[in-house]
Design goal:
The protein is α/β, with parallel strands linked by helices. The protein is about 40% helix and about 15% strand.
Length: about 425
């Protein structure tokens, strides 16, 4: 723990909160306390206004029109690509592919890269703490190609066992796909070391950054990963828009993921010539409005700055952990050395679903269940956990409300 002092003044946080209109409402007659940010973040006015402005002022299909609206929409769409490129420090615009989200981005890599590269006996490595989106697609392609799926184990703190990982990597390893920040545990993985070890064995690396990009600055060139993926809706942006970063040299060799309009240069009944990067992987009419709004979300986060966000969220996590652990029967699931903004927990004698249901009557939104990470639940021998996850607009006062809600739940449940 790094202390429980909120390094961001409360008046500053209050100013941030005013940017999010949903936070002003009441749930079940109580002020909304939104602590489900790992599932999706709320949206600031600037994102909402951008979506509205698109549909009221420039709604048009992109890339194909010579009329003014089409050109305006195209310009803003491609400006977002440049904004994303800068945000993650990709080398080229050709390396930024828009997808519907993290899940589609992973499936794109699995099918386009894995379908072309994996052969019987090849090996793919994932970790024990992966989201189902970074497990199931790899299982499917391994079944299809005859490749072997290996798993990096973790300890009971929720840290990956890097020494065991080193034993798994060998000349047969073709891909290492790991999460940057665990959605179920909050663990921040040592991805720099993971990438370096994989590359020493000529393996490619995919990093699932869905839980990382709203909390940590990401530099894909410094990381030297081959692929990095994230979703806009966990970055204060809209749903239905995500991003695949891929090294240009790797993407060039990959076949298209889907066929259709915009991913082609020339089509005849005899042969189709595919478009240049990144459009080769962007078939059909994209989610134009939400892509443009993603640009507004990135601007919003960068205007606040990751230093302030990290300081505030770290203070919240520390305060919540210290405050709640005094509750009888309270157990934290995931006590890794480095964590980001996620507190998964149980209270002895109360099922997490009951916790979540009763907390909701107090206006407190948490997440309960397996968090699309069933192997994590299996490791800790629990059916599910309750999860409070924090964002820049959360406050210590809301954690106090959460504590009171948990104590009330215990009283209601007779624990």
């Amino acid at each position: 723990m790094s202390g429980v002092t909120n390094l961001v003044p409360s008046d500053v946080v209050d100013k941030w909160r005013k940017d999010f209109p949903i936070l002003r409402q009441k749930i079940n007659g109580k002020d909304l306390v939104y602590l489900d940010n790992a599932a999706t973040t709320q949206k600031p006015n600037t994102v909402i206004d951008t979506i509205s402005r698109y549909y009221t002022e420039i709604n048009s299909n992109i890339h194909r029109g010579v009329h003014t609206l089409s050109q305006l929409a195209t310009d803003e769409y491609e400006l977002t690509r440049e904004k994303v490129r800068q945000f993650i420090n990709a080398k080229s615009l050709s390396e930024v592919v828009f997808t519907r989200g993290t899940t589609e981005a992973i499936n794109l890599v699995v099918n386009a890269w894995g379908g072309a590269e994996l052969k019987p006996g090849d090996e793919v490595i994932i970790s024990e703490m992966e989201h189902h989106s970074n497990i199931v697609p790899w299982q499917m392609i391994c079944e299809k190609t005859g490749a072997i799926l290996n798993v990096i184990p973790m300890n009971d703190d929720g840290d990956l066992l890097i020494d065991e990982y080193k034993k798994l990597v060998n000349e047969k390893t073709k891909m290492v796909a790991v999460v940057h920040v665990s959605n179920a545990l909050g663990t921040v993985n040592p991805i720099e070391e993971i990438i370096e070890i994989a590359h020493a064995h000529n393996a490619k690396v995919l990093i699932d950054g869905a839980q990382a990009v709203a909390h940590l600055a990401v530099d894909v060139q410094k990381l030297d990963c081959d692929f990095y993926v994230f979703s806009g809706h966990k970055l204060y942006g809209p749903t239905g828009i995500g991003m695949l970063y891929g090294k240009e040299s790797v993407l060039e060799k990959m076949p298209p993921y889907q066929g259709g309009g915009d991913m082609i240069r020339m089509v005849t009944f005899e042969k189709t010539e595919y478009n240049d990067l990144p459009y080769k992987f962007e078939a059909g009419t994209p989610n134009i409005a939400d892509t443009i709004a993603l640009s507004a979300a990135i601007d919003y986060v960068l205007a606040i700055g990751f230093d302030a966000i990290h300081a505030h969220e770290t203070a919240l996590l520390d305060y919540a952990t210290e405050s709640l652990k005094v509750i009888p029967g309270f157990r934290v699931i995931g006590t890794a050395k480095e964590k980001a903004s996620v507190l998964s927990f149980m209270i002895k004698g109360i099922h997490p679903h009951d916790l979540g249901t009763i907390l909701d009557t107090e206006g407190i939104a948490t997440r309960t269940g397996h968090h699309c990470a069933m192997p994590v639940m299996t490791h800790f021998n629990v059916p599910a956990t309750a999860r409070a996850s924090f964002a820049l607009y959360n406050t210590k006062a809301e954690i106090d409300v959460l504590k009171a809600g948990l104590l009330k739940t215990m009283e209601v449940m007779g624990v």
